[in-house]
Design a protein that fits this description.
Blueprint: E1 13-16, H1 30-41, E2 45-49, H2 54-64, E3 68-71, E4 76-79, E5 82-86, H3 91-104, E6 107-111, E7 116-118, H4 124-132, E8 139-140, E9 152-156, H5 159-166, E10 173-179, E11 182-187, H6 192-203, E12 210-214, H7 220-225, E13 228-231, H8 237-242, E14 245-246, H9 254-263
Parallel strand pairs: 1-2, 1-12, 2-3, 7-8, 12-13, 13-14
Antiparallel strand pairs: 3-4, 4-5, 6-7, 6-9, 9-11, 10-11
Amino acid sequence: MQKNSEVNIMIKLVAFDVDGTLRDREYLPKSTRRALHTLKEHGITLALCTGRSEYEMKALWTELEIDWAVTCNGSHIGHQGKTVFDNPFSRETVQDWLELAERLNHTLLLYGAELMFTNRANDPHFLQAQKEIGFMEPVLLKDGDEVPNIYQCIVFCNEEDEAHYVKGERSRYYIHRWRPWAVDINPNGMHKALGLQKLLDHLNLMPQEVAAFGDGLNDLELLESVGMGIAMGNGGELLKKKARFVTKPLREDGIEYAVHKWIIAPGGEL
């Protein structure tokens, strides 16, 4: 599981993807809670680093006492829910997409800092995603509603129709297709690694002082950007090849295993 036998890194911050890493739907292992407590006992800062919104993560970071959350694939950074850094879409872009979705009969899920919004109720693709991975209920937009800053847009459409939204300017966005019928779009090429770097700059930390856990394709840049990138055993094969370490699966105490094997030295010494 270990790719490099030499681990001489003083870890000061650990970042965690959420779905498939910290938890599986509502299941969060007791071993993971113990591991987070151990890290905090050693003075290590914890951060969520997820494609989900700040709004969706509030209950989790409150429950686990994690102060920092890099959300919307890096486009929003919050400290105890308060915005520290944000990189929203232009309002013109969001409005254009809402009009386009109306013409093409697509459903959008728009991530703000405090709420999630949608242009259509009871979309079958949204309901399927809600069943598979869980989503909080979004606010239904009505004609004339003012839309706040939006940090991520999920379009429920196939890959061919995706082109209508990016208009041949894919380099302007970070695009992560997570289902044949659903795609994340983030502004200005933002992804988890860039968002985390903003947090590291704020905290005056170096990437070499950071460990990160992930399981999905939108964790690739994250795990490559830090000193200790750790792929979950239940993660994809491409991610495992890119990671420095591969731990056990989430449901086999993978986070606790990695914390004690690679982050906290034997005997509890850093």
